Amino acid sequence: MHKARTESVPFLDLFNQFLDAKAARDPQYLKELRLTRDRFPQLHPMLASDITARTLDQILKKLSDGARNPVMRYLRAVFNFGLKRNYLSENPINRLDFAHRPRREVEIIPNSQVFKNAPSRLEP
Predict the structure, then answer these.
(1) Does the structural domain 2-97 have CATH classification 1.10.150.130?
(2) What is the rounded CA–CA span in Å between residue 83 and residue 50?
């Protein structure tokens, strides 16, 4: 345990290293990663190896299912990056469950109906 802690880095450093490694990716993806990083400042000073599934669960349970799953995917990628760098021995996201979101049928609205119900831009 001592060895794992001495080889680890603060979570903020890990996340920034991950961002640097992904610098060539899509700007929107990078923006979402930065938003995820900045959303949890309480994790920043913690050593990556000290972050547990329980810690993350306490933070993530405040999010809606629609917000929780993407955040978990981003954090999983960051922790996997940390695993490759030997900053931690286990990805804590792997111990959490993603929220089940049932698929719904997509409703397609025909253009004729949209135009029929849309206010005219020519009206005063």
Answers:
(1) yes
(2) 13
Domain residue limits, the chain: 2-97
Token pair in block for residue 14: 């890990």
SS3 call for 110: coil
Mean pLDDT of the chain: 89
> Dihedral, CA atoms, 64, 19, 93, 98, nearest 10 degrees?
30
Stated pTM of the model: 0.77
Range 54-78 average pLDDT: 94
Q: Per mean pLDDT, which range of 2-6, 46-50, 85-89 is the poorest? A: 2-6
pLDDT at position 95, please?
95
